[in-house]
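Practice set, problem 2.
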Amino acid sequence: MIRNVKRKIMFMYFLAGIITIAVLVMFFTRQLEQVNLTTKVIEDIQSNMITAIAIASISFVVIGAFIGIFLSKFIIYPKDKLIKSAEKISGQDKERKLRKKNETEKLDDILGIMTKELNEKLREVSTQKNQIETILLHMTDGIIAFNMEGEIILINPAAKNFLSIRPEDNTFDDIFSKFKLDINMEKIIYLENWTSTEQRIQVDDKYVNVFFAPFKNEEDRPDGVIAVVQDITEHVKLDEVRQEFVADVSHELKTPITSIMGYADTLLEGDYDKETQQKFLNVIATEARRMARLVTDLLTLSRYDNNSSRNTQKDQFDLGDLVKKCQDKLAIEIKKKNHTVDCFVTADVPPVYANKYDIERVVLNILTNSIKYTKEGGEIKIYVGFVYNDAYIKIFDNGIGIPEKDLNRIFERFYRVDKARTREMGGTGLGLSIAKEILDKNGGSIDIKSVVGQGTEVVVRIPTKSN
């Protein structure tokens, strides 16, 4: 491009010179034609003019050459060099831009892939987080996680409830120091193999078991402690009931066995008259029957506990007739205490559907209790009716009654309101427990209301065939 410009400039320069010389020649020629001179003078003038034109042409050429050299060296060459340099830089820029564009596109592709993978990882982490939070939220066990500084980093509602954690309890010491445990985070983390990491804590009326364990990071270094809290209140109470049950059974069996052994040894050691022997034998027989009743009741409870009665044969029978037969069976006891017993059966009571032998045992137990704990000359009223698809039996008496504090425990095994009085009357403390078990197995229920000194009301509900 620069060379073309140079050529154009030189061409225009020489063209301008040629045109100028031609114009001068034409001008001088016309002037000579107009002037009247001799031939010799004209020839001399023409010769001089030709010489002048030649000199001018040469000078023009020389000047043109110098101009060309000047243009080439000081204008064209620098510009040409500059343009080449610019073109080179421009090419490099284009190449760099193209390379940068390619790198940018590759980087965008890589970033797009990385962003996609990152989003997938974030979604996966978010899903796992939501799953863990949902699991922790609905877990029945409590979970608390502490960092190395002892600060809570995770806790679920169950743990807050079990340990009665307050809003201001934010550290390991805040939570567990009030229970005075012989344990701290240092022992758990660094003396794991030598320190008991399981503790039983009583919180108000609840018992919880707390298991401590350290957790580690990716470098297998301790990163904190996790505490798992389990509610063992039911287990503790069941264990207490079991221990109490064993103690009660042992006591109930020990008393008659001691009496039997004592009277038997006495009879064997001496020669007593017939009346004394008869008296001792009556005590032995009474205690033996008491043991038999106790064993029978225990076997009955065991049968229901093991669900061996779930296939008990159920029959359809008239509840009113069953109650009257139970009353007749207890007629001698009623007469002994001179009680007034009235039985009222409401009309149109549908037949019930249950195990007849079991229901008879329940009715006999309740009537026996009313007779035992009602003073001589007392009144007992029995109502048999039907309501809400259930047949019911209501038994009222004006006996000694049951204290309010004992009403919620009367269905516990071996529980007695007055142990001495109950034992004296031959009770085992299992009758109401058996009655409740029987009614539960037959789809029924039992409810007792009582006022001390005024009497007791017992309501038994039994499903009918339609249920």
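Problem 2, part (b): a different protein.
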Amino acid sequence: MNTEDLSIEILELIELGTEGDYWDFKQQWHSKNVDLLHDIICMANSPANRDAYIIIGVKDEANEIVGVCNDEKRKNQQQVIDLIRKKPKWAGGNIPEIYVKTISIQDKENDIIIIKQSDNTPFYLLEDYKEQGILYKGNIYTRKGDTNTPKTDTANLYDTEILWKRRLGLLYNPSQRAKNYLMDLQNWERVDGESDKFGINRFFLYYRQNPDYSIHFTDVERAEDEFHPIPNDINDEALGAPIYYLYSFCNVSYHESFSSDEKVTLYYRDIPLFSSMLEIIDDGRTKVVPPELWTRPNFIQGSFRYLVFEFVIAYWSGNYASEAKQMFLRVIPLFKDDIECAEFMQFVEERGFTENRLLRQSMHGEALNRFNNTSVEKYELYGEPSGTEYISSKLRGNSDLVINFANPTNPNFDEITKKLRIGKMLVDWLDEWRNFKE
């Protein structure tokens, strides 16, 4: 949320004339750290299950905006983060995500402590926090309406149960639960030597905490004829630019094999929640769920496609999963949601970005200038296994580096390079656009 949108929302809350279960007014910053920490925990455990606000610089009795400019106890974001990280020990190592934003309302500065929504509830301490007061270890502090749980008390059984259900995903529908489970890779167990739901004797995965959820990798028969041969090499002329992102992965320079004869399916009981073909490279060691391809290739954070992409990369790539994922995400934009995707694509189109060949349009203006200033390297050690360790280390040490690992004799080499440059340009531009908005 940008500053303008935040200011509008905060002003609307002030005009309500009352506090609520996800917002609290403070005339000035807390004089005691124990009070600030208590408020943060209560808001992090709010039943509203959304971002919560501590709005500083407002008299809560009269809802008068007084500002914080003269507040000697004023803290910045880093000071608040240091407070919650350095002293108390948190259960499970789960710490609320905090931001401090300053906004202007009626020509007065107000500080907003934003406590991000989280499914890691309940947040509670493993040791007493003693500093001008006390917060007790094991106590569950939450918020009911406009009231926090007292420091000497703990939430009732019902409210505590709701917080645990949120962590375990039990408040959500099957699709929402599945998304939470996909992020918990270590709790998926592989079953070998048993027939899966298709009667095929091959391995599958199920989620230990809820076996109703399973993941299956199944073979797909491909029809081949003299006009449509099946490509088995990533440098086959039939592949090329549409899968440009695969050529950003360093191992394709000597593990040239490619196949798309397998798919992954996530099931809730017998209901398929998500299914996708897999693009398999690196002699089968890396399997990739392709991005959305309807317009410009992209991923949407929190979507099934992206979560399964992460899951498959992590499961198959093992120790180099993070490295492999980052190679792809250097040339595939990752959007927070569909709204951000639409806003950003409109933004870049207004500045000259287009790939619409049907309309015979080409990039121009700022987009063309950025494209011309975006570089992609050519891999000079193609086909030499001895070079992969060196280039892998180079990629880890330079987050801006993108290399085209296609065979230099690949007939689509120049088009692949162009697509990689466009992908990198959009990823970098998206990051810059986000920072400007904030």
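Answer key, part (b): Residues 292 and 298 are 5 Å apart (CA to CA). The longest strand covers residues 98-105.
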